[in-house]
């Protein structure tokens, strides 16, 4: 099944959703962006590390963050912790997209407030299912899907 062929009617991503992909590996950023475009998302931004992502997050509107764990300068986990301490960004949905698959890393991310977790390598369908699930349970994305900003 292709991600764009997902049958459930509630599994619709808000087309206006702004997504920030943060990963130090350009091929991974491109792969994720390709999947997002296949799902109908066009408003995609990129950052190579947590510092650059932090600047983007504070400069404009981002509705969803796809975040790698291991990056130079500011790690994904450190950025997540900073986001959760920020008054304006604390409720931002964050999906950790990382090769860190051991249970300790998952527990650490959950304790830091991650919204969901995807382990690399992943299929387009796996990422799509995570995106649909996050959009179904995060109030800001439910409102956005209903056309309310």
Automatic annotation (TrEMBL):
Sequence ranges assigned to domain Response regulatory in this UniProt record: 18-135
Record PTM 4-aspartylphosphate, positions in chain: 68
GO molecular-function term, one example from the UniProt record: DNA binding
InterPro entries per the UniProt record, alphabetical: Bact_response_regulator, CheY-like_superfamily, Sig_transdc_resp-reg_receiver
GO biological process, one term: phosphorelay signal transduction system
Pfam families: Response_reg
Assigned keywords, A-Z: DNA-binding, Phosphoprotein, Two-component regulatory system
Organism domain of life: Bacteria
Annotated signal peptide: none
Protein name per Swiss-Prot or TrEMBL: Response regulator (CheY-like receiver, AAA-type ATPase and DNA-binding domain containing protein)
Organism name: Solidesulfovibrio magneticus str. Maddingley MBC34
